[in-house]
Amino acid sequence: MRRIRIIVSYDGTDYSGWQVQPGRRTIQLMLEEILAGVDKKPVKIYGSGRTDAGVHAYAQVAAFNLENPIPTENLRKAINRLLPQDIRIVSVEDVHATFHPRYDAVAKTYQYTIYRPEICPPFERRYVHHYPYPIDEEAMIQAAPIFEGEHDFKAFAAADERDHLGYSKVRRIYSSSMWHEPNRLVYRVRGSGFLKHMVRNIIGTLIEVGKGNRSTDDLRELLTGSGKCAATAPASGLFLVHVEYPIPNEASSDNIDSDGAGA
Fold it and tell me: Range of 179's domain?
């Protein structure tokens, strides 16, 4: 039995997220159906975390067991040949038997883009949050680093089916920044793990700062775990950029727990 690690890139617009859901078209389901054909039996694939409906990924990491001895390069080509064009396997490699893409991960990076002009080009709309309304962009940029450090992100987490298990909602954010690019604001965050809707709720709250409805003191209060954040920003602007591991294919004791993949 082989343990295979893959890096997957996808446009999440037409999918109900990563995770298999009854009656829904998901990234995990598409991959498992193809891999079952390769191995002539059901194959369970594990991702580094869940991305919700409409969220995209440059480099989602996933792993599965396979008995078929097909070389990794041929496996990559075979899977890509059968996948729809909005999902692509970037790389395939054999790894040690205990590798787990979620439990071994030590950090993830997400990026969110807000498109500012009045008219959003049709070919941009699937990958940005179109927000052409007046906001104080500099206030948002100045507020973004407040999320750095270890905080209780309960106020920024959507209800999750695993809440009854009592998992901690404390997460460590290594970097949180927003900057200008032509016609857009870009936010990038790197952290130990992310809760359901966490990044999109951070964006929604930063927009409230830009509108003058929230202060930096309000953000600090929310980061104590009290209160509730602003509206959730749309999924279209969010990308999973990178998943980090301490040593290639080696497990870590600093696991990411209850990760909602920044949906």
Answer: 107-244
